[in-house]
Design goal:
Length: 327
């Protein structure tokens, strides 16, 4: 483990990930670095999808939006531009070649082994900082929400007459294998409206989320609110922050809910909640422990039973327990 003179660290670069949910799991690294190296500048390299997460964050001095689809010439030009900034420390969370070209004083290793007790992706991202002599690795995810974002969501809720308890439902996911059934979501939403007088608000971040939310709404007997496409990432975080519960598949909104401290009820199938699950004290996961699950593969051989066997009754019962006291 190198001995780092913190006073000599003036500029740092964090190379984060591409997908929104994955990016949110890297935000504890930025928060930790800002505390360990106060007064130092932190630049962040992020994919286009994650720009909204950081572009208003006061911790970030410079935001580098990197599209991996750019040409080799453009990549080389970017490398030369960043090299001129003379970074003292680079935390590369996606194992790129950038640290080799930038030649910082300190960088994370591209070959990283983890203690067996460190399983969750958030904790693994943080553990990369251990090689810098940083031992306090307990930060949670976060997202900076501006006053303008708060005002926008205030107006959105008021205009649509959304009253509590507010339950945000995110029935989409990037992979169709991570999605619970349309019928299941519809039954749970109707149950929460009928038994808890809840306001159901649909939300999402993916390109397919609008149609998925509409499919659930068509199956419902009661009125709901569809906010898919009406918020950016920070505004969605603001909405979640003032909600009583989020019901979600393994998806970006689930990680956003964790970042703002919302109670999260997550529905898992092929992915492993030990690696990707919600991390809040009062969060819950519903999944089926089958011989094949979690498989973490891109195609299912057995008819998607890990999701189909999850009943609406068990999700509804857990959701009612989690919003109890907010009626």
């Amino acid at each position: 483990m190198p001995v780092i003179d913190k006073a000599q660290i003036r500029r740092m670069l964090v190379i984060t990930l591409s997908n929104i949910g994955d990016i949110i799991l890297t935000t504890p690294v930025i928060r930790t670095l800002s505390k360990e190296f106060p007064g130092s500048r932190i630049d962040v390299m992020v994919g286009p999808n994650g720009k909204d997460i950081f572009d208003k964050d006061p911790r970030i001095f410079k935001l580098v939006v990197y599209d991996k689809r750019i040409s080799i010439t453009e990549k080389r030009r970017l490398q030369l531009k960043l090299r001129k900034l003379k970074y003292d420390l680079v935390a590369d969370l996606r194992n790129t070649v950038f640290p080799f070209f930038l030649a910082p004083k300190y960088r994370t290793s591209p070959i990283q082994s983890f203690p067996k007790e460190i399983v969750h992706k958030k904790e693994r991202h943080l553990y990369r900082l251990f090689s810098f002599g940083i031992e306090d690795l307990n930060e949670r995810s976060y997202i900076h929400i501006t006053k303008e974002d708060e005002y926008y969501v205030d107006d959105l809720l008021k205009t649509n007459a959304v009253t509590g308890p507010v339950v945000v439902v995110s029935p989409g996911a990037k992979s169709h294998l991570k999605r619970w059934t349309i019928e299941g979501f519809a039954e749970v939403c109707d149950g929460l409206i009928g038994e808890c007088a809840a306001s159901i608000v649909f939300a999402g971040t993916g390109p397919d989320d609008k149609e998925i939310a509409l499919s659930v709404a068509r199956k419902m007997k009661n009125k709901c609110h569809d906010f898919v496409g009406k918020t950016n990432i920070r505004q969605l975080a603001s909405l979640l922050k003032r909600s009583n519960l989020l019901i979600s598949n393994d998806s970006a909104p689930m990680h956003l809910g964790c970042a703002v401290g919302t109670k999260v009820l997550a529905i898992f199938g092929p992915t492993d909640p030990r690696k990707y699950g919600p991390t809040g004290e009062f969060d819950a996961v519903i999944n089926k422990k089958l011989f094949c699950s979690p498989c973490e593969v891109a195609a299912c051989k057995y008819g998607h039973e890990c999701m189909k066997l999850i009943s609406a009754d068990e999700v509804l019962d857990r959701a009612k327990m989690m919003i109890e006291g907010y009626e």
